[in-house]
Write a structure and sequence with these properties.
elongated; alpha+beta; 302 residues; 4-stranded antiparallel β-sheet
Length: 302
Amino acid sequence: MTDDFPEMPDFDPKLTRKAVRRGLVRTTTNVLAVLLALALVATIGSSLVQQRGDRERRMTDVLGTAFKLYNPAYSVAVSDCCETTPLSMSFQVTASPLRPVGGSWPAAGETYTISQDFFGRVGRLPLGSTAGTRLSVSLFNVGGALAPKEEVRKVLARLPDGLNALSVVEFAAPLKDAELKAFLEQNKTCADKVVYERRTSSLPITWGEITWDGGEFSEGKHGCGVGLDNFRTWVGLLREHDDANLRSFDLTLDRLRKAARDGLAYAYVDELSSVERLRELIEDPRVRTIRLADATFDLDRP
């Protein structure tokens, strides 16, 4: 019986090396293609998962607003959401210290990034209780050591009448919503932010007219735009699972819900009143004290 197998060709090292190279290139190309596909699927899939439903809008509604509450001594602008990576979502905020209206202050603030990981946990936060501005200190002291009215009168007497001041007007007893409105109307003044909590030696819950731009705003003058209804609507958006992130902003659901439910104004921030107006306010028996935080000239100047 004869073997029909063809003769084996002579071994050619060059052809063998070429074949090996072609095999390696083909294998490498296939592996890279698979890895690229997996990376695209992971990136796009992660983005879709993180952006599902109204998650982007809710991120700025909850975390952006919480950051403003975390920094009541700052004017904060929240950018559109979001920049997404496979492991996180983030947006930017611009914050500048509140100053009295009418001064020549630098317009630009500092820009910061607020991020949450794939599981929705917020990252490390800037500013907050470590900011230490004059207004922060004044808010820290609400309900605490008293600046006696006589001392406040002496300070105000040394300042020019027309000078605008940044101040915290603290009430002797907290005012209900209607009482706050009556106080502001009677004194022809405005509340830029209302302090809805007495939390001495810590930053209290403080709500301003641009703290959240959603919900309904009450008609008519109420703190020149400050609305308790708007605050209550925002608190109504919060869910139990938000509590862990809120704690990163030195907030809790219980405190927010109590402040919104009670609706009691313990103090308010005034960016516009003149020294002359503050001299009149300090005489109102409903006012416990006025804590001056800044004026349209340097309070540290001799």
